[in-house]
Amino acid sequence: MKTKWLLIGVALLTAVLAIGAIACSDDDDEEDTNGDTNGDVIDDDIDIGGDLGIFQLTASLTGPEASGEADISPNGEGILVSIIMEGLTEGEHANHLHDGSCDEQGEVVIALDNIVADENGDGSQTTANDEGSIDHYATGHYLAVHAEDGEVISCGDVVNPLA
Predict the structure, then answer these.
(1) pLDDT given at position 162
(2) According to a count of CB atoms within 10 Å of the terminal CB, is the N or C end of the chain lower?
(3) Are 84 and 157 within 8 A, CB to CB?
(4) Side-chain half-sphere exposure of 55, counting CA atoms within 13 A
C-alpha cells in the first residue's frame, strides 16, 4: 500500500516539474538582421482562440484515392495548418485554405506550403500564417489538395471538434 502511494506521489511530482519546465522555457524567437521576427520560428506565445475559445480546428480530407487529416491551431496572431495525407501520386501537391465548403467551393484564402508525397503516396506539410485568428476560420472554410493539373483530389470542410 505504501508503495502504491509512493508511486502516485512520484508521478504527481514529475508532472508538476514537467509543467513548470514548459512554463519557464525560454522564447526561441530570433530576430533577423532587419529586426523582424524570423518567419520560420513558430510563436511560443500561443493565443488559445480569442472570443470563441477555440484551441484547434480539424478537417478530414477525402477523395477518390487520396485522404488525410488536417489540424488548424492558433499561432500568435495567426494560425498553424498541419496536413498529413496518403494515397497521393508521388511528387508535389498544391493545397489551399478556401472560403466556402467542399460542396460550395470558393476562392483561395491562404496558399499553403506544397505537400511532397513519397513513392508510397504519403506526405505532409505545416504552414504558419498570420492572416486572421483561428476564430475567423471556424466556419465557412475548407481545405483542398490539388493534382498537378489543379483538379481538387481531396477536400475537407473545416470544423470545430468541440462544437
Answers:
(1) 80
(2) N
(3) no
(4) 1
Neighbours of 139 (CB within 10 A): 14
The answer to whether residues 65 and 105 touch, using CB atoms and an 8 Å cutoff, is no
User: What domains are defined for the chain?
Assistant: 50-157 (2.60.40.200)
Please state, for a pLDDT cut of 90, what percent of the chain lies above it: 54
| Alpha helix stretches (DSSP H) within 112-159 | none
Ordered strands of the 141-146 beta sheet: 105-117, 91-100, 141-146, 152-157
The three cell numbers of residue 149 are: 493539373
Whole-angstrom distance, CA of residue 83 vs CA of residue 119? 18
How far, rounded to the nearest angstrom, does the alpha carbon of residue 145 sit from its chain's CA centroid?
A: 15
DSSP string, 65-77: S-EEEEEEEEETT
Reference 144, options 111, 119, 120; nearest CA is 111
Write the CB contacts of 35 (distance below 8 Å, at least 6 apart in sequence): none
